[in-house]
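---------- Forwarded message ----------

FYI, see the Tripartite tricarboxylate transporter substrate binding protein record below. Original note from H. follows.
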Amino acid sequence: MPRRRRLLAGAAGLASAGLAAPAIAQPRWPDRPVRVVVGFPPGGSLDILSRVLAEQLSARSGQPVVVENRPGAGGNIGADVVAKAAPDGTTIGTIGFTVPLVAPHLYARLPFDPVKDFAYVSEVWEFPNVAAVPAQHVPARTVAEFAAWVKQRPQGISYGSPGVGTSPHLSAALLLDRLGLAGVHVPFRGAAQTIPAMLSGDVQLAVDNLASYISVIQEGRMRALAVTSAERWPTLPEVPTMAEAGIPDLTLASWTCWAFPAGTPQPIITRLAEEIATINGSAAMRERAIGMGARMLASNPAAVQARLDREREKWREMVRLSGARME
Protein backbone atom coordinates (compact mmCIF):
# COMPACT_ATOMS: atom_id res chain seq x y z
CA MET A 1 0.00 0.00 0.00
CA PRO A 2 1.46 3.44 -0.92
CA ARG A 3 2.83 5.47 2.00
CA ARG A 4 0.26 8.29 1.87
CA ARG A 5 -2.63 5.83 1.65
CA ARG A 6 -1.27 3.97 4.69
CA LEU A 7 -0.93 7.19 6.63
CA LEU A 8 -4.45 8.22 5.73
CA ALA A 9 -5.71 4.77 6.70
CA GLY A 10 -4.01 5.20 10.06
CA ALA A 11 -5.55 8.62 10.40
CA ALA A 12 -8.99 7.20 9.65
CA GLY A 13 -8.43 4.61 12.35
CA LEU A 14 -7.47 7.30 14.81
CA ALA A 15 -10.47 9.38 13.91
CA SER A 16 -12.78 6.43 14.56
CA ALA A 17 -11.06 5.43 17.80
CA GLY A 18 -14.32 5.09 19.68
CA LEU A 19 -14.52 8.57 21.17
CA ALA A 20 -17.89 9.87 22.20
CA ALA A 21 -18.92 13.13 20.60
CA PRO A 22 -20.92 15.03 23.20
CA ALA A 23 -21.67 18.68 22.66
CA ILE A 24 -18.95 20.96 23.97
CA ALA A 25 -19.98 22.53 27.27
CA GLN A 26 -20.05 26.23 28.04
CA PRO A 27 -18.44 28.50 27.11
CA ARG A 28 -19.83 27.77 23.68
CA TRP A 29 -16.83 27.31 21.41
CA PRO A 30 -16.50 26.85 18.56
CA ASP A 31 -19.74 28.43 17.41
CA ARG A 32 -18.59 28.81 13.79
CA PRO A 33 -16.08 27.17 11.39
CA VAL A 34 -12.45 26.90 12.52
CA ARG A 35 -9.29 26.48 10.46
CA VAL A 36 -6.14 24.70 11.60
CA VAL A 37 -3.07 26.13 9.86
CA VAL A 38 -0.23 23.66 9.22
CA GLY A 39 3.11 25.04 8.04
CA PHE A 40 4.04 21.92 6.05
CA PRO A 41 2.66 20.22 2.92
CA PRO A 42 -0.06 17.57 2.92
CA GLY A 43 1.02 14.00 3.62
CA GLY A 44 3.57 14.56 6.37
CA SER A 45 3.23 13.70 10.04
CA LEU A 46 2.12 17.17 11.20
CA ASP A 47 -0.50 17.33 8.46
CA ILE A 48 -1.92 13.85 9.10
CA LEU A 49 -2.06 14.24 12.87
CA SER A 50 -3.58 17.72 12.56
CA ARG A 51 -6.35 16.26 10.42
CA VAL A 52 -7.01 13.53 12.98
CA LEU A 53 -7.34 16.04 15.81
CA ALA A 54 -9.35 18.47 13.68
CA GLU A 55 -11.81 15.74 12.71
CA GLN A 56 -12.36 14.78 16.34
CA LEU A 57 -12.81 18.41 17.40
CA SER A 58 -15.32 18.89 14.60
CA ALA A 59 -17.26 15.77 15.63
CA ARG A 60 -17.44 16.92 19.23
CA SER A 61 -18.42 20.52 18.47
CA GLY A 62 -20.64 20.12 15.44
CA GLN A 63 -18.66 22.83 13.63
CA PRO A 64 -16.38 22.42 10.58
CA VAL A 65 -12.69 22.29 11.56
CA VAL A 66 -10.65 22.42 8.38
CA VAL A 67 -6.89 22.01 7.90
CA GLU A 68 -5.18 24.64 5.76
CA ASN A 69 -1.62 23.89 4.58
CA ARG A 70 0.69 26.91 4.33
CA PRO A 71 4.11 25.29 3.84
CA GLY A 72 7.53 26.91 3.73
CA ALA A 73 10.45 28.23 5.77
CA GLY A 74 10.44 25.29 8.17
CA GLY A 75 6.91 26.02 9.36
CA ASN A 76 7.37 29.77 9.75
CA ILE A 77 5.05 30.75 6.90
CA GLY A 78 2.18 28.94 8.55
CA ALA A 79 3.13 30.37 11.94
CA ASP A 80 3.04 33.87 10.48
CA VAL A 81 -0.49 33.26 9.17
CA VAL A 82 -1.56 32.30 12.70
CA ALA A 83 0.24 35.21 14.34
CA LYS A 84 -1.59 37.70 12.09
CA ALA A 85 -5.04 36.08 12.31
CA ALA A 86 -7.91 37.59 14.26
CA PRO A 87 -7.80 36.43 17.92
CA ASP A 88 -11.40 35.23 17.87
CA GLY A 89 -10.93 31.46 18.19
CA THR A 90 -11.40 30.71 14.50
CA THR A 91 -7.70 30.09 13.72
CA ILE A 92 -5.60 27.42 15.42
CA GLY A 93 -1.94 26.90 14.56
CA THR A 94 -0.14 23.56 14.52
CA ILE A 95 3.11 25.00 15.84
CA GLY A 96 6.19 22.80 15.96
CA PHE A 97 8.65 23.49 18.76
CA THR A 98 11.19 24.79 16.25
CA VAL A 99 9.14 27.96 15.75
CA PRO A 100 9.75 29.28 19.30
CA LEU A 101 12.99 27.39 20.06
CA VAL A 102 14.97 27.37 16.80
CA ALA A 103 13.73 30.17 14.55
CA PRO A 104 14.88 33.03 16.85
CA HIS A 105 18.47 31.71 16.68
CA LEU A 106 18.37 30.83 13.00
CA TYR A 107 16.80 33.83 11.28
CA ALA A 108 18.22 37.32 11.26
CA ARG A 109 14.64 38.56 11.42
CA LEU A 110 11.19 37.02 11.72
CA PRO A 111 7.84 38.47 10.61
CA PHE A 112 6.37 37.50 14.00
CA ASP A 113 7.44 37.31 17.64
CA PRO A 114 7.33 33.63 18.73
CA VAL A 115 6.92 34.68 22.36
CA LYS A 116 4.41 37.52 22.15
CA ASP A 117 2.33 36.65 19.07
CA PHE A 118 0.94 33.26 20.13
CA ALA A 119 -1.26 31.96 22.89
CA TYR A 120 0.12 28.45 23.33
CA VAL A 121 -2.68 26.12 24.41
CA SER A 122 -1.39 22.56 24.81
CA GLU A 123 1.15 20.04 23.63
CA VAL A 124 -0.62 17.71 21.20
CA TRP A 125 1.91 15.03 20.20
CA GLU A 126 5.57 14.12 20.07
CA PHE A 127 7.65 11.59 18.22
CA PRO A 128 11.28 10.57 18.06
CA ASN A 129 13.32 11.18 14.98
CA VAL A 130 14.66 8.12 13.20
CA ALA A 131 17.92 7.82 11.30
CA ALA A 132 16.77 6.22 8.07
CA VAL A 133 18.58 5.18 4.89
CA PRO A 134 17.17 3.90 1.59
CA ALA A 135 17.55 0.13 1.70
CA GLN A 136 18.20 -0.20 -2.03
CA HIS A 137 21.05 2.32 -2.08
CA VAL A 138 22.75 2.15 1.34
CA PRO A 139 23.96 -1.26 2.59
CA ALA A 140 24.44 -0.20 6.23
CA ARG A 141 22.24 -1.77 8.91
CA THR A 142 23.68 0.02 11.93
CA VAL A 143 24.98 3.49 12.72
CA ALA A 144 28.53 2.13 12.91
CA GLU A 145 28.20 0.43 9.51
CA PHE A 146 26.81 3.65 8.06
CA ALA A 147 29.80 5.64 9.33
CA ALA A 148 32.21 3.11 7.83
CA TRP A 149 30.34 3.15 4.51
CA VAL A 150 30.37 6.95 4.30
CA LYS A 151 34.12 7.08 4.99
CA GLN A 152 34.69 4.87 1.94
CA ARG A 153 32.72 7.18 -0.36
CA PRO A 154 34.99 9.86 -1.87
CA GLN A 155 31.93 11.67 -3.22
CA GLY A 156 30.42 11.90 0.28
CA ILE A 157 26.73 11.85 1.08
CA SER A 158 23.75 14.15 1.21
CA TYR A 159 21.03 14.23 3.83
CA GLY A 160 17.49 15.52 3.51
CA SER A 161 15.16 17.43 5.80
CA PRO A 162 11.92 19.43 5.64
CA GLY A 163 13.89 22.68 5.71
CA VAL A 164 16.78 24.60 7.21
CA GLY A 165 16.59 24.72 11.00
CA THR A 166 13.98 21.99 11.34
CA SER A 167 14.48 19.25 13.90
CA PRO A 168 15.44 16.73 11.15
CA HIS A 169 18.08 19.13 9.81
CA LEU A 170 19.62 19.81 13.21
CA SER A 171 19.40 16.16 14.31
CA ALA A 172 21.18 14.92 11.19
CA ALA A 173 23.84 17.62 11.49
CA LEU A 174 24.46 16.58 15.10
CA LEU A 175 24.64 12.89 14.20
CA LEU A 176 27.18 13.50 11.44
CA ASP A 177 29.21 15.72 13.78
CA ARG A 178 29.29 13.01 16.45
CA LEU A 179 30.39 10.45 13.83
CA GLY A 180 33.07 12.74 12.41
CA LEU A 181 31.39 12.77 9.00
CA ALA A 182 30.60 15.48 6.50
CA GLY A 183 27.40 15.68 4.52
CA VAL A 184 25.59 18.08 2.21
CA HIS A 185 22.23 19.25 3.53
CA VAL A 186 19.40 19.16 0.98
CA PRO A 187 16.28 20.97 2.24
CA PHE A 188 12.88 19.92 0.94
CA ARG A 189 9.40 21.25 1.64
CA GLY A 190 8.49 18.19 3.69
CA ALA A 191 8.95 14.45 4.14
CA ALA A 192 6.61 13.80 1.23
CA GLN A 193 9.32 15.25 -1.01
CA THR A 194 12.36 13.93 0.90
CA ILE A 195 11.30 10.28 0.81
CA PRO A 196 11.09 9.97 -3.01
CA ALA A 197 14.53 11.59 -3.30
CA MET A 198 15.91 9.01 -0.89
CA LEU A 199 14.22 6.09 -2.62
CA SER A 200 15.73 7.21 -5.93
CA GLY A 201 19.21 7.33 -4.36
CA ASP A 202 19.69 11.09 -4.65
CA VAL A 203 19.79 11.47 -0.84
CA GLN A 204 21.36 8.87 1.42
CA LEU A 205 20.21 9.84 4.93
CA ALA A 206 17.43 11.50 6.88
CA VAL A 207 17.00 11.85 10.64
CA ASP A 208 13.36 12.76 10.38
CA ASN A 209 10.12 12.30 12.31
CA LEU A 210 9.34 8.62 12.81
CA ALA A 211 5.67 9.31 12.10
CA SER A 212 6.57 10.34 8.54
CA TYR A 213 8.81 7.32 7.87
CA ILE A 214 7.34 4.41 9.79
CA SER A 215 5.29 3.06 6.88
CA VAL A 216 8.22 2.98 4.41
CA ILE A 217 10.39 1.41 7.13
CA GLN A 218 7.82 -1.30 7.79
CA GLU A 219 7.51 -1.89 4.03
CA GLY A 220 11.29 -2.48 3.87
CA ARG A 221 12.01 0.36 1.46
CA MET A 222 13.80 2.30 4.19
CA ARG A 223 16.09 0.90 6.86
CA ALA A 224 15.98 2.39 10.36
CA LEU A 225 19.41 2.66 11.99
CA ALA A 226 18.40 4.21 15.34
CA VAL A 227 15.72 6.32 17.01
CA THR A 228 16.35 9.47 19.08
CA SER A 229 13.99 8.48 21.91
CA ALA A 230 15.27 7.39 25.32
CA GLU A 231 13.70 3.96 24.81
CA ARG A 232 13.06 1.78 21.77
CA TRP A 233 9.82 2.48 19.92
CA PRO A 234 7.12 -0.13 20.71
CA THR A 235 6.32 -1.03 17.10
CA LEU A 236 9.98 -1.14 16.00
CA PRO A 237 11.53 -3.07 18.90
CA GLU A 238 14.50 -4.21 16.83
CA VAL A 239 15.67 -0.62 16.16
CA PRO A 240 18.14 0.64 18.80
CA THR A 241 18.16 4.03 20.42
CA MET A 242 20.92 6.47 19.55
CA ALA A 243 22.45 5.82 22.96
CA GLU A 244 22.50 2.08 22.27
CA ALA A 245 24.07 2.84 18.89
CA GLY A 246 26.91 4.74 20.57
CA ILE A 247 25.59 8.32 20.34
CA PRO A 248 24.48 9.06 23.93
CA ASP A 249 23.90 12.81 23.53
CA LEU A 250 21.33 12.57 20.74
CA THR A 251 18.21 11.84 22.78
CA LEU A 252 15.37 14.14 21.82
CA ALA A 253 11.74 14.30 20.79
CA SER A 254 10.11 16.43 18.14
CA TRP A 255 6.97 17.89 19.65
CA THR A 256 4.10 20.05 18.54
CA CYS A 257 1.56 22.25 20.24
CA TRP A 258 -1.64 23.95 19.21
CA ALA A 259 -1.78 27.70 19.58
CA PHE A 260 -4.13 30.60 18.98
CA PRO A 261 -3.10 34.12 17.98
CA ALA A 262 -2.17 36.20 21.02
CA GLY A 263 -5.16 38.01 22.48
CA THR A 264 -7.56 35.09 22.10
CA PRO A 265 -9.94 35.12 25.09
CA GLN A 266 -8.88 32.89 27.96
CA PRO A 267 -12.16 30.91 28.10
CA ILE A 268 -11.55 29.78 24.50
CA ILE A 269 -7.97 28.79 25.30
CA THR A 270 -9.13 26.80 28.31
CA ARG A 271 -11.90 25.16 26.29
CA LEU A 272 -9.52 23.96 23.58
CA ALA A 273 -7.05 22.61 26.16
CA GLU A 274 -9.89 20.61 27.74
CA GLU A 275 -10.96 19.23 24.37
CA ILE A 276 -7.41 18.17 23.52
CA ALA A 277 -7.15 16.40 26.88
CA THR A 278 -10.37 14.49 26.20
CA ILE A 279 -9.52 13.55 22.61
CA ASN A 280 -5.86 12.65 23.14
CA GLY A 281 -6.61 10.95 26.46
CA SER A 282 -8.51 8.15 24.75
CA ALA A 283 -6.71 4.82 25.14
CA ALA A 284 -7.70 3.87 21.59
CA MET A 285 -6.32 7.14 20.25
CA ARG A 286 -3.01 6.66 22.08
CA GLU A 287 -2.62 3.07 20.91
CA ARG A 288 -3.32 3.85 17.28
CA ALA A 289 -1.00 6.86 17.37
CA ILE A 290 1.86 4.66 18.60
CA GLY A 291 1.32 2.50 15.54
CA MET A 292 1.71 5.60 13.38
CA GLY A 293 4.94 6.59 15.14
CA ALA A 294 3.53 9.31 17.39
CA ARG A 295 2.68 9.74 21.06
CA MET A 296 -0.40 11.84 21.77
CA LEU A 297 -0.03 14.51 24.49
CA ALA A 298 -2.24 16.92 26.37
CA SER A 299 -1.26 19.73 28.72
CA ASN A 300 -1.99 23.43 29.28
CA PRO A 301 -0.37 26.82 28.56
CA ALA A 302 1.79 26.70 31.70
CA ALA A 303 3.14 23.27 30.79
CA VAL A 304 3.94 24.40 27.24
CA GLN A 305 5.86 27.39 28.60
CA ALA A 306 7.75 25.21 31.08
CA ARG A 307 8.85 22.86 28.31
CA LEU A 308 9.95 25.77 26.12
CA ASP A 309 12.04 27.15 28.99
CA ARG A 310 13.53 23.72 29.69
CA GLU A 311 14.63 23.03 26.11
CA ARG A 312 15.61 26.48 24.89
CA GLU A 313 19.36 26.22 25.52
CA LYS A 314 19.66 22.74 23.99
CA TRP A 315 18.22 23.85 20.67
CA ARG A 316 20.16 27.12 20.63
CA GLU A 317 23.34 25.05 20.90
CA MET A 318 22.21 22.70 18.12
CA VAL A 319 21.64 25.67 15.80
CA ARG A 320 25.13 26.93 16.62
CA LEU A 321 26.65 23.53 15.95
CA SER A 322 24.89 23.20 12.59
CA GLY A 323 26.25 26.55 11.41
CA ALA A 324 22.89 27.31 9.82
CA ARG A 325 21.86 30.91 9.35
CA MET A 326 18.99 32.41 7.38
CA GLU A 327 18.31 36.00 6.42
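H. also flagged this: The chain has two domains: 3-127+253-322, 129-227.
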